[in-house]
Specification:
This protein is mainly beta. About 35% of the residues are buried. A five-stranded mixed beta sheet has the order 32-38-37-34-35, covered by helices on one side.
Length: about 625
């Protein structure tokens, strides 16, 4: 039977190890990162530095207003540190929209592109983790430019994209730089005339080439205003680019292959993973809500298979981002499955994408941004509640609270003579869920919990333990969550004492010349044992015989005091009791509840005072 139990515990332990080693992400609870007036977070990682930038808008009464930029940085040796309002104020005229873009190179240097004026993009630079920023240069354009997008190339250089606004079109322009200081003049990125509205480019470097996917409305699709995605490749570091190649996605609806122009494709996001480029984007069929899709591209920019539908249903899904974590792809986006927008993350399990809500907080949560630094994943996003905008973040679940230990049949820290102790515990609440506990039960005060799962959370959370010798015993317990974290041990102690106390020592009562007590109303006292902690006493007064009996010639079977505490005093009083020979038998009871060996005091009484008790009176008139 014991072998079966051991095998059962081992099986459960191995199963949980399998679960914990799977590519699940276990999060702590969402926390406020920026408490007020923070919008449109942007993140970037390079070298050993991670950075998160946000916009602080101050509206004016007449529309528009001012905007400041703030940034928080973290390194592998230092936690997040905020650098507030490092740039600004800048003027915005209409709607609140991001005016900046962020990049961090392999040396941990921070570069920020900011649309500071209608035709000026300014490059800010920090070499000390955001402690100080300086302006490297202003890049001027011939017309209005908005929405800068800054990317670091594989060779350490930079590509900056902006969107030029004219009266009847939006078009992407670009500039390149080898060092972030000297930039080429802005040039058109899209030369095809039919692609007259194009924006939101996303860039990656792959095998020493540059790849950019962007969205565009063509002269053919302007009637339905459905965007399509296009790919351009540069093989000279971004100086020149190939013709725009439309990405054709095959998809069946109702068993029929649908035409490309029945779909709108927007907001591409790319990530290099191994020998391929991963891409996620928003895809909308006719007037149905947009969904999140996923596909892969090869070195030539060809699709390697049909697109995968990550989401489905009536939720409007937006702003997808690819994350490579623990050598697996995940996708981050926000959707309105709960009425309000929430941040959702999905990982692939076999042929399916499994998602979950990671922003279960009040308000609208949107624009999620991942940060992966030293194999630790953080998620940042904007949250709107009422008129307040804040930035929240999630970090990995690294801690778990200890269980609450409850002593069953003893008082914690007390001394007792019981050997079987009942203990139960309450598992803590944890964002990842509790897998189970480990415990130790040992003599002494040491915590000997080793971090080996002994009782899973679906079992009875109590135990009966045996103390086989006197002394201090300690029960320690630690909880393990499904993220693999072990709590600090909680403990309860108990002192087992089964050695009874020594007998009491009686005080000598006053007697007359014949050895009788001087009165039949008297008090008899005693002294407690010297080496024991005494809780109280039990006693019994036994009538032995008449006052003339010779106690030495009569066999007497003396009584034992009751097995319970009768008094905490070290004396007992009696009032006018009958004449005779008596024995007062007293045992000490120590703090563990042990009853000591009884001691007796034999005394004689002969001074009883007769009294009359009236028990009934009848009055007659």
């Amino acid at each position: 039977m014991r072998t079966i139990k051991i095998l059962s515990v081992v099986s459960v332990f191995l199963f949980l190890l399998t679960v914990l080693n799977a590519q699940d992400i276990y999060w702590d609870l969402p926390k406020v990162f920026v408490p007020s007036e923070a919008r449109f977070p942007i993140s970037a990682v390079g070298g050993n530095t991670a950075a998160v930038l946000w916009h602080e808008f101050i509206p004016s009464k007449n529309g528009g207003g001012k905007v400041y930029l703030s940034i928080s940085t973290r390194t592998e040796k230092r936690s997040w540190k905020n650098h507030l309002r490092f740039a600004g104020p800048f003027v915005y005229e209409r709607n609140q929209a991001p005016i900046s873009s962020l990049a961090v190179n392999s040396r941990g240097e921070i570069y920020i592109a900011v649309a500071v004026d209608e035709n000026i993009t300014r490059i800010f630079f920090s070499a000390d983790g955001g402690e100080h920023f300086k302006i490297l240069t202003d890049i001027k354009a011939v017309s209005t430019t908005v929405a800068p997008r800054l990317f670091v190339k594989q060779d350490g250089g930079f590509i900056l994209f902006v969107t030029h606004e004219t009266t009847d079109s939006l078009s992407i322009f670009y500039s390149v730089s080898a060092d972030g200081r000297r930039w080429t003049n802005f040039r058109p990125f899209v030369n095809e005339k039919k692609l007259f509205i194009n924006f939101l480019p996303y860039h990656v470097s792959f095998k020493n080439n540059e790849y950019v996917v962007f969205q565009s409305v063509t002269t053919e699709t302007i009637r339905n205003y459905r965007y399509q995605l296009y790919l351009k490749i540069s093989r000279d570091g971004g100086e020149t680019w190939s013709d725009a190649k439309r990405l054709e996605f095959k998809e069946h609806k109702g068993g029929k292959l649908q035409k490309q122009d029945q779909f709108s494709n927007q907001r591409p996001n790319l990530k290099v993973f191994g020998n391929r480029i991963l891409m996620t984007w928003e895809r909308q069929y006719r007037n149905q809500p947009p969904q999140i899709y996923f596909t892969e591209l090869d070195e030539q920019g060809n699709l390697t298979g049909e697109p995968e539908k990550v989401t489905e249903g009536l939720n409007s899904c937006h702003f997808p981002q690819i994350i490579i974590y623990k050598n697996e792809p995940f996708i981050l986006w926000f959707d309105n499955r709960r009425g309000e927008d929430h941040i959702i993350i999905a990982g692939k399990r076999g042929f399916r994408w499994e998602d979950r809500d990671i922003s279960r907080i009040p308000g609208e949560s949107s624009f999620g941004r991942p940060v992966l630094l030293n194999n630790t994943l953080y998620i940042f996003w904007e949250n709107k509640r009422g008129k307040q905008y804040r930035v929240f973040f999630l970090e990995p679940d690294r801690t778990v609270l200890p269980p609450k230990v409850i002593a069953g049949n003893f008082k914690p820290g007390s001394i007792s003579n019981i050997s079987d102790l009942r203990i139960r515990w309450i598992l803590p609440k944890d964002s990842s869920g509790i897998a189970g506990i480990d415990y130790s039960w040992n003599p002494g005060a040491k915590h000997l919990v080793k971090g080996v799962l002994k009782i899973t959370s679906n079992k009875k959370q109590s135990i009966t333990l045996y103390a086989d010798k006197d002394g201090l015993w300690t029960f320690s317990i630690s909880a393990m969550d499904y993220a693999g974290n072990w709590s600090k041990p909680a403990s309860v102690s108990y002192i087992r004492d089964t050695v009874p106390p020594s007998p009491v020592t009686f005080d000598s009562p006053k007697v007359d010349e014949k050895g009788f007590l001087t009165t039949n109303t008297f008090k008899i006292g005693w002294k407690p044992p010297k080496k024991d902690t005494i809780k109280g006493y039990t006693y019994v007064l036994q009538y032995v015989g008449l006052k003339d009996v010779n106690i030495n010639k009569v066999k007497v079977k003396f009584l034992s005091p009751p097995s319970r505490l009768l008094t905490r005093k070290t004396n007992i009083s009696y009032r006018n009791i009958d004449n005779g020979v008596y024995a007062l038998i007293v045992s000490a009871i120590d703090s563990a509840g042990n009853i000591g060996r009884p001691n007796k005091l034999i005394f004689k009484l002969n001074k009883y005072i007769p009294v009359t008790y009236i028990t009934y009176v009848k009055a007659k008139k």
